[in-house]
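Write out the bound-state structure for iron/sulfur cluster.
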Amino acid sequence: MIIGTALHLRAEPGKCIECSRCTEQCTASLEVQSMVLSGSMDDAECVLCSGCVDVCPKDAIRFSFRAGFK
Ligand code: SF4
Ligand code: SF4
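---
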């Protein structure tokens, strides 16, 4: 049974051209480019402002809903 969803970021490292725009844009001063390349976008400091999503020229970062199951 689905009991809820959590908005989070997903990255596709293969699309990233390492331009650093996401890192420069980040409201929380995170190393977003490094997060993208590692494939793990889960960071407690992220405020989901969408800055990195909006600025990425390659659509390498996007929002996604993660369903919670019970
Ligand atoms: S959504 Fe905002 S706070 Fe989160 S990594 Fe992207 S730019 Fe940083
Ligand atoms: S803005 Fe996009 S292409 Fe540029 S470093 Fe970040 S994820 Fe990679």
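---
The CA atoms of residues 12 and 44 lie 20 Å apart.
The helical segments are 21-25, 32-38, 51-55.
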